[in-house]
């Protein structure tokens, strides 16, 4: 199971070669080692960024893949390489296209801690904790109901369940596949902020900022394929539940894992 990658859209626009080297070229090195040692099953953490600006919502796995940033292209290249490896070497794979991974373990012991932090829900909660003065909203003129970007949030525990289901598929000899992983509901940046205010009981000041290069306006999944083929269904099926688990972790780990 290959989880490692650089994943910041803005940074990928500024430093594309770094992203192609880390996400694409180094995955090729991993695949070479696997082939040399007879390992023939592979699960990739891919991304909804492979779709770019979608033609329709929700997005399904047959839709066009035209990424709008080097991060998405670096992952799409790996998906295409995996298909070539399937044909040439008999490598079977599952490419799991995450939408927005979020949340924390229900125990409150394992959570999301990046440096620097760029994910929306942790940033919102840092404002609620008083660690940031306000939250920046990147663009308020997108083609969405409230002008802010629309995203589909999926809980990390549901992602873990999907990886187990995908591994079982490969072990059972059912062949390669590509799956979306999302809850099939889009939440705007402003909606996430309002949910976080409700969950935390804190005011969360915001500041409007220009759009970031490479951001699509809407990314919402159709997860019907993985539900039908693998029986996967998200247990955390709305963003308020996801934020509640993240808030529990952030309150008990205000400095992250430090």
Structure commentary:
This protein is 41% helix and 15% strand. By secondary structure, it is α/β, with parallel strands linked by helices. A 3-stranded parallel β-sheet has the order 1-2-7, sandwiched between helices. The protein has a 3-stranded mixed β-sheet with strand order 8-5-10. Strands 3-6 form a two-stranded parallel ribbon. Helix 4 crosses helix 6, helix 4 packs across helix 8 and helix 6 crosses helix 8. The longest helix is centred in the first third of the chain and has 21 residues. The model has no long low-confidence stretch (mean pLDDT 96).
List segments where confidence is low: pLDDT < 50 over at least 5 consecutive residues. none
Number of helices: 8
Estimate the mean pLDDT confidence: 96
- Care to count the β-strands? 10
Strand content: 15-25%
User: What Rg is obtained from the alpha carbons, in whole angstroms?
Assistant: 18 Å
CATH fold node name: Rossmann fold
**Percent helix range:** 40-55%
Molecular shape? globular
Strand count, sense and barrel status of the largest sheet are: 3 strands, parallel
Written as H for each helix and E for each strand, in order along the chain, the element string is: HHEHEEHEEEHEEHEEHH
Assign the CATH class: Alpha Beta
Cα(first) to Cα(last) distance is 27 Å
| CATH structural architecture | 3-Layer(aba) Sandwich
Helix/strand structural class: alpha/beta
Which superfamily, in CATH terms, is the homologous superfamily?
A: NAD(P)-binding Rossmann-like Domain
Summarize the SSE layout with pairings:
Blueprint: H1 9-14, H2 16-36, E1 41-47, H3 70-89, E2 92-98, E3 100-102, H4 120-128, E4 135-138, E5 150-151, E6 153-155, H5 156-171, E7 177-181, E8 187-188, H6 189-200, E9 206-209, E10 218-219, H7 224-230, H8 239-252
Parallel strand pairs: 1-2, 2-7, 3-6, 4-9, 5-10
Antiparallel strand pairs: 5-8
Helix pairs in contact: 2-3, 4-6, 4-8, 6-8
């Amino acid at each position: 199971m290959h989880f490692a990658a650089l994943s910041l859209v803005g940074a990928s626009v500024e430093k594309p070669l770094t992203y192609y080297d880390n996400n694409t070229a180094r995955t090729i090195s991993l695949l070479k080692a696997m082939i040399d040692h007879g390992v023939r099953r592979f699960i990739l953490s891919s991304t909804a960024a492979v779709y770019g600006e979608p033609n329709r919502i929700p997005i399904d796995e047959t839709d066009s893949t035209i990424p709008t940033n080097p991060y998405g292209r670096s992952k799409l290249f790996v998906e295409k390489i995996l298909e070539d490896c399937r044909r040439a070497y008999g490598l079977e794979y599952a490419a799991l296209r995450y939408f927005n991974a979020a949340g924390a373990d229900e125990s409150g012991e394992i959570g999301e801690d990046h440096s620097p932090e760029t994910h929306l829900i942790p940033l919102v909660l840092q404002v609620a904790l008083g660690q940031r003065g306000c939250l920046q909203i990147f663009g308020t003129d997108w083609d969405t109901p409230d002008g802010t970007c629309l995203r589909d949030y999926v809980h990390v525990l549901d992602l873990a369940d999907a990886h187990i289901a995908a591994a079982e598929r490969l072990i059972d000899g059912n062949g390669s596949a590509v799956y979306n992983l999302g809850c099939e509901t889009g939440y705007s940046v402003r909606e996430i902020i309002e949910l976080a205010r409700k969950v935390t009981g804190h005011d969360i000041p915001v500041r409007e900022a220009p759009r970031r290069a490479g951001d699509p306006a809407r990314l919402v999944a159709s997860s019907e394929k993985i539900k039908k083929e693998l029986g996967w269904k998200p247990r955390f099926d709305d963003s308020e539940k996801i934020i509640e688990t993240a808030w529990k972790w952030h309150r008990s780990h205000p400095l992250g894992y430090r």
